[in-house]
Amino acid sequence: MTIVNPIVTPTNLSGFPAGLHNYTNITPFTYRDGMSFLEKVESLQNWLYTILVPHIDGEMSSFETAWNDEVTSLIATVNTALTTQADEVNTAISTETASNDQKIADLTTWVSEQIATIVQNSLEANDGVVQGLVNNTNSLARAALDAVYQKKGTVDDTAVSHLLDTDTATREAFDGRYFKASGATLDVPHGGTGRTSDTPNALIAGGTASDTAQVSISPSTAGYFLKSGGPDSLPSFVELINDNAPNAGKTYSSTKIEALVASKAIYDTFANRPAIASVKDGTIFACSDLPEQYIAQGGVWRVIGSGGNELGYAEINAQTVTTAGAGTTPVPIVGLATTFKVGVRPIRVLFCADVANELANSRTLIDILLDGVKAYTILVPSPSTAPMWVTGSGSVRLPAAIGGTALVPGSTHTISTQVYCDTTAGRAHVTGNPGSPGNLQVVTA
């Protein structure tokens, strides 16, 4: 409650100096009680102007100030009371609104659950009815589905027909599950191209985004190449131009490029060398199991490069290892044999070793054998003073066949040696040492 203080407070005023009483039969200049009437009037006038009027003015000013202060305080008190009440009202309204919103949300959830339950129960209860609509040849739903989706069997009715013709969750669900029938556009997010037709002989590329329709790269001039346009642009067909010095600006035809690409180098075993008809002229074939290279030229494989490549090698280098051949009976030279694979080139066999014969003026014979068949004989004369060590050496170029054994390219063969004398009385020896080993070498001719 607001308490208003009194505005006007009691004030002691000095009394009128002369008593006030009734005057009758006034004579202005008659003295009564020591004062004439005129003097009393002047005294009253003086008291009014000097005492009463200033006092009243002061009291009115104080009254005005006190009044204004009280009114201002009252207004502030009322405003505070109103503001407090407004806050309390707003708080109450907000609290009630939140409570109502939650109740509405709870109610909405409950209604949705009930509807879903009803729909589910309806579908389960009417499964046979839906089946009948799908299988009914006169069903509107079946006709609507047949017009939009690829038929597998049969399809439902009027309500479903309406849902399929509008932008609904049902339509979206069907689009996400089924392939559309011919004539309808299946978009990219659902596994389609987003297109209703293709450009003849054009390449198909992805759209500008992951879910936009695919686009065509138009066919171009014969012989042109597909060049990348970078990560943000489609590729295009262009003529191939060399950008590098010293051939900058030079163009390459597709025929020349095809020849360059086709004439590649192949590295494999000889057995896997491709048929000449399957490669372009200029193709290089390098054997992985033979020291030979070939070039396809004029319908045949031609060996290229120089010969002299080693195919096999063996040696004896200890003086204590000596092979002795008595008389005319050949004896294998232990340690001087090697197995190798032949290519297209002919081969050359080279022999060199220290040889001695116990019979003076006789001859020692060294046979070169190809797969056990004698291919060549080296004659080593014995000095007049025996025994004396001499160097026996020789070489032979072996053609395509020796003694019925064909040197088929890619085939494997063995070169071995044997020693004997030209007379029964002779006794031959073959040896080597670390400084001059006896050796057998097979190279390409």
Please characterize this protein's 3D structure.
The chain has 445 residues and is an alpha+beta fold. Among the domains are: 130-184, no CATH class; 265-304, no CATH class; 310-444, Sandwich (Jelly Rolls), CATH 2.60.120.40. 30% of the residues lie in helices and 28% in strands. It contains six helices and 24 strands. The strands form eight sheets. Strands 13, 14, 16, 19, 23 and 24 form a six-stranded antiparallel β-sheet that branches. Strands 9-10-11-12 form a four-stranded mixed β-sheet, with no helix packed on it. A hairpin with an 8-residue loop joins strand 5 and strand 6. The N and C termini lie far apart (133 Å).
What brief labels describe this structure?
4-stranded mixed sheet, alpha+beta, 30% helix, 6 helices, 6-stranded antiparallel sheet, 445 residues
Strand content: 25-35%
Please identify the structural class as seen in this structure.
alpha+beta
Query: Could you tell me the mean pLDDT?
Result: 76
Number of helices: 6
Shape: elongated
> In angstroms, what is the radius of gyration?
65 Å
- Largest sheet, strands/sense/barrel: 6 strands, antiparallel
